[in-house]
Design goal:
about 625 residues, alpha/beta, nine-stranded mixed β-sheet, four-stranded antiparallel β-sheet, about 40% helix, about 15% strand, Type-I_RE_MTase_Subunit, DNA binding, DNA-binding, restriction system
């Protein structure tokens, strides 16, 4: 392998440069002996020299001129590692959106750095700003900023959880035309505010936990001419706009957050409808949104389907209905939420005003087949709450206020099974889930009991079979330019939510490393796929590739932690370094590691099968009671 020198590109980058698919690049590597060899990366994700690739493409007649935007992106990509890429992209985008950029570019590099202290943090930043500005002169600021955002999202598809433009446009379409101020308390990169924005007519207000994402959101809005105020911080625990009363609030909150601030926010005045249960973070976000809407203002929130029927949240749902805050729920197609593959719901609410009559109906809309019918159904309902349209039903409030207060649209729409074919579709989904579950059944062989000889991690570290590094116990996790994976993130299986700064003591995990909680307090272990900065109370395990398979290590540590958690006293916090790993041949470890990965897929399939089965049970029960279904005479 050649040594890495100068800008590098991935196979996907090469495909974009040449205007072909990735399969074509793989074919070139096999067919052409003179195709440039990798200069870095891994066997599964190699890196190539940009200069060598460009020369080869030109020699083959596959590239006439390197596109300006791709050249800029390769300069950006090679100027920042994975941990700092969003910071650099957001600073370049903010520079392109700067009102005085053209004037500033006439000055020297030192003057530009002095004028933009928040955007210039390294020696390479000013040349990159000049390159981005040059592209903006040709393509325009909006297209340039969107190019940078799109490339970042493609490079970090696993990290970027953004509402699709289609769903964002749908949510914005529910906003009344006279709304002059729109708020998103979890605005990410600004997608919902962009959809609802109108240059010169709408002021966009947003808050975002990640400071770099907030900066990028502000830039994306600015280049569109949308007046915006975007601030960084956790909206639940650190409200940046305590006095805000917006005309409309749009939000796609994090789903199923355990650490949303339950203890510290128990007496918060925002909980006008009741203290959200610890496991119902979404209800905290809904109430936060209502608190920041003006009286009579709209609230539109993307919600997980389970939030409509969980028993723990039924009292708050009841209060939403009794006060007239909840006006409609829209069932969307699967995959409409970036947080989950399940079919989410849109909750349409209105902050009650003094003297408002309590609505007598709540609209239920089925938009699982097509989102196009949702807005017309809502507008028809606003004009006449008793008017029904295809795929929707105005449900009397009294019918919703039973013991369960289940607001799932499928339970209330007229003739859901017989008319819409709900039972048939759900049976197909269940059979497909069962088939997937059957395909993923663990392939194992029963053998006479043979205890595996296991060695403590500390002993393996002494022999050099792996290395163990513990992160500092005390670290700043609330601010800084780097995303930090916290122990809670690891336990909940989510992306990094902490923020920290580079400096002495920072531990960075790389591909193939294994991360576990340092105290072993929860059965969690993960194999790192890309560079990740680690927060406090974590243990990084770096296996020697010739001694251990990382998925074998993670699987055994996770299973061992689960056993320890089930048998140890509640106050006990075992040291993860005392956990043990079996010593097996590497080939056998890889078979174990593959099976551990398949078990994770099996668990996901088992969950989907259960959800499909529960949905089918409810549809059949409702259909039998409503007279839409009858027992099969041949059965």
């Amino acid at each position: 392998m050649a040594t890495q020198e100068g800008p590098t590109v991935t196979s996907g980058d090469i495909a974009r440069l040449a205007g072909v698919g990735r399969a074509a690049v793989s074919n070139w590597r096999r067919r052409f002996g003179d195709f440039p060899g990798p200069v870095g990366g891994t066997a599964s994700s190699p890196l190539f020299s940009l200069a060598e690739v460009e020369a080869w493409l030109r020699a083959q007649g596959k590239l006439e001129e390197l596109p300006e935007d791709e050249l800029l992106w390769q300069q950006v990509r090679n100027s920042a590692d994975d941990l700092r890429l969003l910071s650099l992209v957001s600073r370049l985008a903010a520079a392109v959106a700067h009102r005085r950029l053209r004037t500033l570019l006439e000055a020297g590099d030192a003057e530009i750095a002095d004028a933009l202290p928040d955007l210039v943090v390294g020696d390479e930043d000013v040349p990159l700003i000049r390159a981005a500005a040059a592209l903006a002169e040709v393509r325009g600021p909006e297209e340039t900023v969107e190019f940078l955002y799109t490339r970042y999202a493609q490079a970090h598809a696993r990290r970027v959880q953004a509402v699709s433009p289609e769903v964002a446009d749908l949510m914005a379409a529910f906003v009344e035309p006279r709304a002059a101020e729109v708020f998103d308390p979890s605005c990410g990169h600004g997608g919902l505010l962009i959809a609802a924005g109108d240059p010169g007519a709408v002021r966009a207000v947003g808050q975002e936990r990640d400071g770099d994402a907030a900066r990028l959101a502000g830039a994306r809005l600015a280049v569109r001419g949308i007046t915006a105020d975007i601030r960084r911080g956790d909206a639940l625990t650190g409200d940046a706009f305590p006095l805000l009363q917006a005309d409309a609030v749009l939000c796609s909150p994090p789903f199923s957050e355990r650490g949303w601030g339950y203890e510290e926010l128990a007496g918060d005045p925002r909980w006008q409808y009741g203290l959200p249960p610890r496991g119902e973070s979404e209800l905290a976000w809904v109430q936060h949104c209502l608190a920041h809407a003006r009286p009579g203002g709209q609230v539109i929130v993307l919600m997980p389907p389970a939030a409509a029927g969980r028993r723990s949240g039924r009292r708050i749902r009841s209060r939403f209905i009794r006060t007239g805050a909840l006006r409609a729920i829209v069932a969307l197609p699967p995959g409409s939420a970036p947080q989950s593959a399940m079919p989410p719901h849109l909750w349409l609410l209105r902050r009650p005003d003094d003297g408002d009559p309590i609505p007598t109906h709540v609209l239920m809309i089925d938009a699982t087949e097509s989102r196009d019918s949702a807005v017309p159904a809502w507008r028809s309902f606003v004009e006449d709450p008793r008017r029904e349209t295809a795929g929707s039903r105005a449900v009397p409030v009294i019918d919703l206020l039973d013991e369960d207060v289940d607001l799932t649209p499928a339970r209330h729409l007229a003739r859901p099974a017989a008319v819409a074919g709900g039972v048939g579709r759900t049976v197909d989904e269940l059979l497909a889930a069962v088939a997937e579950l059957t395909r993923l059944l663990p392939s194992v062989t029963e053998t006479p009991h043979r205890p595996l000889v296991a060695v403590p991690l500390s002993e393996l570290a002494r022999t050099g079979a792996l290395s163990v590094v513990q992160t500092p116990g005390r670290m700043e996790t609330g601010r800084g330019e780097l995303a930090l994976l916290t122990a809670e993130d690891l336990i909940l299986g989510r992306a990094a939510t902490g923020r920290g700064a580079d400096g002495p003591g920072l531990v960075v995990a790389g591909p193939g490393d294994v991360v576990v909680p340092a105290t072993g307090r929860a059965p969690a272990a993960a194999v790192v796929e890309e560079e990740t900065a680690l927060g406090p109370h974590l243990l990084l395990i770096r296996p020697d590739p010739g001694s251990f398979d990382p998925h074998f290590v993670a699987g055994f540590l996770r299973a061992s932690a689960a056993r320890a958690a089930g048998s140890a006293p509640s106050a006990s916090r075992p040291d993860a370094r005392r956990m043990r790993l079996p010593r097996l041949p590497l080939a056998e470890q890889r078979r174990y590691g593959q099976l551990f990965r398949e078990l994770d897929l099996f668990a996901d399939a088992l969950r989907r099968t259960g959800e499909a089965g529960e949905l089918l049970r409810g549809l059949v029960l409702d259909g039998l009671v409503d007279g839409d279904l009858r027992p099969d005479p041949s059965g």
